[in-house]
Amino acid sequence: MSSNMPPVAKKVPTERTHHGDTVIDEYAWLSNKEDPDTTAYLEAENDFLKQQTSHLADLQEQVFQEIKGRTQETDLSVPSRKGRWWYFSRTEEGKQYAVSCRVPADSDAPPEITPGIRLDREQVILDGNELAGDSPFFSVGTSSVTPDGTMLAFSTDYKGDERFTLRFKNLETGELLPDEITDIFYGGAWSADGSAFFYTRVDDAWRPFQVYRHTLGTQEDVLVYEESDERYWVGIGLTRSEKYLVLGAGSKITSEVRILDAADPAGEFQVVRPRKTGVEYGVEHAGDFFYVLHNENAQNFELATAPLDDPGTWTPLIAHREDTRLLEIDAFSDHAVVHFRRDGLTGLRVLPYSGAGETWRERVEASERNAYEIDFPEPLYDVGPAGNPEFTTTRLRLAYTSMVTPPSVYDYELDSHELILLKRRPVLGGYDPADYEQFRDWATAEDGTKIPVSIVKRKDAAKPAPTVLYGYGSYETSIDPGFSVPRLSLLDRGFVFAVAHVRGGGEMGRRWYEDGKLTRKRNTFTDFVAVARHLKASGWSDRVIARGGSAGGLLMGAVANLAPEVFAGVVAEVPFVDALNTILDPSLPLTVIEWDEWGDPLHDSDVYAYMKGYSPYENVDGRPYPPILAITSLNDTRVLYHEPAKWIARLRATAKGGPFLLKTEMGAGHGGRSGRYDAWREEAFALSWIIERGTS
């Protein structure tokens, strides 16, 4: 095969019939990961990609050096206090992974720490570089210290398939315990006394469905909970107060919580309230009562309280509001903080327990009367609680960023209401926020709905300009205004960067999400196209390059089919582009639990017809398409590699235009390559392709 010619995937017609509809899938064979023909085809695609992009090598290297040059490679996080220790992490120049550390807490003020300089009595908890060794992939799934600070539970993955091995380390002696547990999921929780660790396992469909209890020094772990409903995931955590273990089971639309006294790890978990279809709730321990955040008869959620001896009886505290989506509640000994979303932006509401009253109910009702919100000056930003492990504290740690302000860590002093900047991520190379400007614009969708758009550009950039338009639009996930070092390589070349906050996301509340899922999913795609057209019509953009990943990759494939003429290029990362075939197959990872998000085409003919009408792979036709770059990973367990492989093969065989390129990471998972330098090079590759599309 000539290196100038793209690979041609063989066609092996595979017939399937659903609801009387017979479909031929000629590239289904690519789903066989063990077939040598599959590996050969993916490697041929990678070779073709290298040939097609070899002229971008200098630009790729330039962008990589820009990212590297703007990043303070030897850096550290702001210490967070937990018990007798301050915990933080270091990164060091030339090393791929972070190093987790701690120092004794001699006072309430965080220690003065300097990048590259070790502290007296500094202890390394976990060195990712040492653990990774020469492995091309490495990831930590959990890192959890016992309440008394003496033992560490940590899990590692060396393939990218998100199957972790759990180990335990004595932090007083540095000794690794012989206990070793394989094939576990993310997360986990310690009992109050540190004698037992709870963890989860997944089934063959990659669904976390079991919770086990491991007692240190023993070999037989105890199954404490198994979820039989295939729509539900399970997880386990320890409350900030360290008084309760919380075991949650949830589908996309329903949840059920069980609690257990953390001092009694062998006890029985108590159900807070039995699951009721469509009702989601979470429980937070607040000392002598519980907070419950729920959506029963409250689309945007309501905050309630409940007594410790009757956690299923809920009394409203913050009532439902049409304009405010309550996101989470963080409880402390003397106050609580509500994280919320309003008008497309996040915010924080503080509830101080400083009012009159002798009972907990009187105190908490007074806290709502005295509640206040923290103000922030920028027109676009994202804020949320961050690193608040201590139950008793007079400060709130929060994370803040905007499209021009690098990620920042503040302590908010609850007594004085003062915001104390602890750290703003350094951006080297002379970055000045005053050189850039951000805007909130609004596009009009086909049905008249106003779609928010976040925009950032250099102040001196000409208009109209080449534009990268990013979107996601699923699972109520919000793409909030945030800062990006790699993005500066676009902005400094005159690009505009925009985020289309399309329906299916959560930017405008729960209704925004519901209007972009199930049989209203097309709104996600038409909203994005409407934003792209608006950017051109209003003078922002001359050419638009679309970018999205995972479910946002479905968006990319759908808009390429809907309006290929609107886009100068499309970057689809780990894209969910074979949506119909995947959601039809209950044996695949995630399928059954996804039916609440997309519908069940296997058993419902109307859902089948609706999904077939938008699924990217099913709707490729012979029109001219823009250039498309699809990026995937062989070990991805969420969006399997064969989806973009099949999509590119069909585009190349059916559509005009292009070119259509496929890049497969042969040793990574859903998040791509794991080391930070490797990740920067991957981003530099994508950005160089985008720059060419926008400027050629």
TrEMBL record:
It is an enzyme of class 3 (hydrolase). GO terms for molecular function: serine-type endopeptidase activity. Residues 483-691 form the Peptidase S9 prolyl oligopeptidase catalytic domain. Keywords: Hydrolase, Protease, Serine protease. The keyword Metal-binding does not apply. Its EC number is 3.4.21.83. GO terms for biological process: proteolysis. Residues 6-424 form the Peptidase S9A N-terminal domain. The keyword Signal does not apply. It holds the Pfam family Peptidase_S9_N. It comes from the Bacteria. Belongs to the peptidase S9A family. PANTHER family: PROLYL ENDOPEPTIDASE-LIKE, PROTEASE FAMILY S9A OLIGOPEPTIDASE. This is Oligopeptidase B. It comes from Nonomuraea rubra. The lineage of its organism: Bacteria, Bacillati, Actinomycetota, Actinomycetes, Streptosporangiales.
